[in-house]
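Bit of a strange request maybe. I'm writing a small parser for structure token strings and I need a real example to test against, not something I typed by hand. Could someone generate the tokens for this chain?
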Amino acid sequence: MRHKLHKFTFPIFICLLLLISNGNAQDSYEEKSIDVALRMIGHQLLLSSNDSTSRVLPISRENNTYRIQFESEFEFKPVELVAIIDSVITEADIPSEYIVEVGECETGEVVYSFKMDDLEQSDIIPCGVRMQPKACYSLVFTFMTNDSDIASLSVTPVISPMNYGLIAGALLLGAGLFFFLWKRRKSANKNPNLIALGEYHFDKRNTELLINHQKIELTSKEADLLLLLYNMVNTTVEREVILNKVWGDQGDYVGRTLDVFISKLRKKLEADSSVKIANIRGVGYKLVMEV
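Reply from user aminoacidic:
Good idea to test on real output. This should exercise your parser:
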């Protein structure tokens, strides 16, 4: 019963989580955009230093200041650094005015820095082609935003009154659907002749399949065959075993007919794709389903 209830209620709870997260998504969009852009800057910077294996460590943040840290040492030219940062920031939907400081990991000493709005007014990049020695560096970005922009980068959860109503509705819907399915399954389990097969119920006494208030009649051999496969669910049953259990010793004719009966059962079970009868070539058949 647990698997079946989960199959129906899981989408409900996914919708609920989406509703809850919807209030946070807008507020954290810029935050995530900045994080992705800064990681891309770190990646490109390592590549420019012929390092394609070292990791860019998690981005740290304090207010509107971000720090990119690296797993390994590297060297850089200021002109390449500025070009990489400008290219990534331009393509990203994030603030375009910022200050970059390159500091040594151990001492914190700033070895290079620039302010983007200054560079936009000049083509001169200080120390542009002078290679900075290989060392452990971190890059600190300070985005020059106004108060409203800083507020938009906040990750504080915000859920609107409308979302509260949607959440409450989703909870009620999920609880109602869960109770309905639980009650239906509990009622079905009172009948020992009913076997749950995915969306179907197999009435072994009346030799019929039940689904969505519809009855699908089975022949006695089809019912015996389905019951045998169910008793060995998710396990391959050899052809010889099936022939012996269902038909007994009736010669080669029955062996050829087995495939026909399997085809008929597949046809009658096709309304639920989670229930399948698999052909294990050269061995036999297997009923595949969640249990």
